[in-house]
Amino acid sequence: MENIIYAIITFIYGIFIGSFLNVCIYRIPKKESVVVVRSHCMNCGKNIKWYDLVPIFSFLILGGKCRYCKTKLSAQYPLIEFLNGIGYAIIILIRGFNLVSILYCLCFSSLLALSVIDFRTFEIPFAFNVFIGILGIIRLLTDLKHWYVYIIGFVVVSGFLYLIFIITKGRGIGGGDVKLMAAAGLLLGWKGIVLSLGLGCILGSIIHIILMKVQKKDRVLAMGPYLSLGIFITMLWGDKIINWYLNSYIR
């Protein structure tokens, strides 16, 4: 019951942070400030009042349209807000309310935003990887007894991907993906980041083949969203998956 209460509270926090993520998703690729410029309608340029910025509910009350010019607003706004809130709630329900869960919630926000940007532009903004790396440093400092787990996590997958990056001259993997796995490895540790890579590759292969068949997508894919999904699954059930694998196949 306690976790449910915490999950509800973090869901509310999550949807408000999700509102900020929408700003990041739209402005960062355009090199615009996410802090200085006020929220405004992308069509008429009118500044949006505070009461029209309430996550999810303002969109529904306005019927998905700008209050001033009546231009239809993107469904991305409430969707990102909801996904961020529900992601927070799921993390708290599964892992409980603790420092690691808070770090994972913040990491999830970065993964969600960078996945949308990477899917659209094939680029992962460096700032997101830096932020995840900072979360990883905090995780390391709170578990100094096992510092080596996180240091190895920082290099074990990113080093392998960087080798692919060099050999293929950037055609096999993107530099942003290498940095993402380094930062996430510092947060998850070496076992977690290896699992994340495996899950990301499997999911990426399956989902992208389906997209190629159904939506005629090009063979080139953005790995960020799939690696992020692998990282998210690892944050939730990584220990259980690893223990199941070790108990089932390694005796």
Characterise this structure.
This protein is globular. The chain is 71% helix and 0% strand. The model has no long low-confidence stretch (mean pLDDT 92). Helix 1 packs antiparallel against helix 3 and helix 3 packs antiparallel against helix 4. The protein has two domains: 97 residues, no CATH class; 130 residues, no CATH class. The chain has 251 residues and is mainly α. The chain is built from eight helices and no strands.
How much strand?
under 5%
Described by the principal axes of the CA atoms, the overall outline is globular
Low-confidence stretches: none
Give the radius of gyration. 19 Å
List keywords for this structure.
2 domains; 251 residues; mainly alpha
Topology:
Layout: H1 2-27, H2 57-61, H3 76-95, H4 99-121, H5 126-141, H6 147-167, H7 175-214, H8 224-249
Helix pairs in contact: 1-3, 1-4, 3-4, 4-5, 4-8, 5-7, 6-7, 7-8
